[in-house]
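Minutes, project check-in
Item: structure for the 221-residue chain
Input as provided by the requester:
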Amino acid sequence: MAAEDQESASRVGAASGQAERIAEEEKLRADCYGLLARLLRATPEAELLRTIAGIEGDDTPFGRALDELAKAAASASAEALDDEYLNLFVGVGSGELLPYASYYLTGFLNEKPLAKLRGDMAQLGIARADEVTEPEDHIASLCEIMAGLINGSFGAPADLAAQRSFFDKHLGQWAARFFQDLEEAKSAAFYVPVGRVGRLFMEIEAAAFGMLSDEGVRRPH
């Protein structure tokens, strides 16, 4: 992540817990993934909204998107957010958006991308929580896994080569497109800046992983 984007991302740390001490740059990345996961898993609660309202960005596209998200959180109402989340992701039968890798990559739910993800999760020793009913290729689950790989929630923090492999297989081909769809969704108000933050963050991650050396150990600063 570029230095100017790190400065903006540092404001989101309070919205996502950490498993163990890791380098500051990696902590910021895990925080961003964790915050996106929390916002996409369910309607944000009042405490989370207050935390987000305190975020301060900078004069970069990512920083300005964080500012927009903070302003949206400061003015959001619980009732309106419940309705918005329902219309976007649940609806009657389905919401406006289907936030699953299988759907974005194949046009159908529960397809090969989900099977491949389950295989990789088994190799990593990661299992779906009992209380979660959504398929594992839900965007929130994938963001949670990326956060856990970075901060060590599933054991030791994964090295950059392992992080890049998971990102390329399960997020890189579709997540930015999903977040753009969220940014432009008819039912979105609060979730417009959520989509913008997610899209820009995925673009930053893709660019940074793309600049890794052959050894898979260097990220640009």
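Outcome recorded: The first helix runs from residue 3 to 9.
No further action items on this chain.
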